[in-house]
Amino acid sequence: MPVVLAVTLAAALIACSPGDDPPSGASRESGAADHLVAAVVVEHAATTSSHERPGSLRHRRQVRLFSQEEGRITLLDVFEGDMVREGEVVVALEDDLLQAELDKARATLAQTELDVRRLEDLVSKRAASDAELSQARTAVAVAQGDVRILETRLAFTRIPAPFDGVVIERLVEPGDFVSKNTHLLTVADPESLVAEVYASELILPRMKVGDPAQLRIDALGAVAFPARILRIHPSLEQTSRQGIVELTLEDPPAGVKAGQFVRVTLETAAVERLLIPFRALRRDRDGELVWLVTDQGQASRRKVRSGLQMADSIEILEGLAPGDRIITRGFLGLSEDKTVKVVPE
């Protein structure tokens, strides 16, 4: 009797791979030739996946104000955090020299217009040529252009707010002399806050604009706020193969600020996937594979390509079909065409 018990224990050990529990239904009376395995039938399943991604809040509508003329700053009364109204002059530059040049250009224009009227009278009396009149009219057009240029440059010395917003950067002070194209202020629209996160190329096709999401802001505690996908960027980052997803908060809480760290939970739409237990997927030098049980009760290797992993299951993209029976336990000593006995998990 001890000899029979030893043979039975040896068969059970052969049927289990390291770290696997032996199939619970293994019979104590199995013969030594039986290779015990556990197996499941592959089927499609409608699944959704939840993915948490870290990101940051930022202002989607943000404008940096630059000087278009050089000069000394004579007006700058707003500071970081101040609200400004659209069209409100927030920065003014010294304009005395431009104003003097404009006065001069207007005087020149008035003189050229007077010359044209005088020449028109002389031409009518045949006391001047048409060529002289044409040159005078050209001088009027040039003088008008000079006036418009100086009026435009003078307007550039008054810099208005582009929209209702908040000042988030003040980089100069009254009395500073600034050259052209100097960054003076930055104004942002506080209502344009978006969360920006990166998502894998594997889940991007299963998301669309308007899909709901949950957003947590670490600085405001563990409360989750409802959000929606605003935009999915069309290009991917070449190294990580991830794309940018922008989300808007449906009801921004008090204390929310640009730059805060967020955690966004994205839910993908239900998709039919071919799922198998993760423990059934094996790897060797040639890549990923699974072991199948054939209709003749024999083991057979099959190369596969996997996709998303969800909990203890993994998606199979290539290599399997619904109805295939794959081995989930009992890999130790398994070989091609070896006869196996399927027992319950």
From TrEMBL:
<dbReference type="GO" id="GO:1990281">
    <property type="term" value="C:efflux pump complex"/>
</dbReference>
<dbReference type="Pfam" id="PF25967">
    <property type="entry name" value="RND-MFP_C"/>
</dbReference>
<dbReference type="Pfam" id="PF25973">
    <property type="entry name" value="BSH_CzcB"/>
</dbReference>
<dbReference type="GO" id="GO:0015562">
    <property type="term" value="F:efflux transmembrane transporter activity"/>
</dbReference>
<feature type="domain" description="CzcB-like barrel-sandwich hybrid">
    <location>
        <begin position="66"/>
        <end position="189"/>
    </location>
</feature>
<comment type="similarity">
    <text>Belongs to the membrane fusion protein (MFP) (TC 8.A.1) family.</text>
</comment>
<dbReference type="InterPro" id="IPR058792">
    <property type="entry name" value="Beta-barrel_RND_2"/>
</dbReference>
<dbReference type="InterPro" id="IPR058627">
    <property type="entry name" value="MdtA-like_C"/>
</dbReference>
<feature type="domain" description="CusB-like beta-barrel">
    <location>
        <begin position="196"/>
        <end position="269"/>
    </location>
</feature>
<dbReference type="InterPro" id="IPR058647">
    <property type="entry name" value="BSH_CzcB-like"/>
</dbReference>
<dbReference type="Pfam" id="PF25954">
    <property type="entry name" value="Beta-barrel_RND_2"/>
</dbReference>
<feature type="domain" description="Multidrug resistance protein MdtA-like C-terminal permuted SH3">
    <location>
        <begin position="274"/>
        <end position="330"/>
    </location>
</feature>
<dbReference type="InterPro" id="IPR006143">
    <property type="entry name" value="RND_pump_MFP"/>
</dbReference>
<protein>
    <submittedName>
        <fullName>RND family efflux transporter, MFP subunit</fullName>
    </submittedName>
</protein>
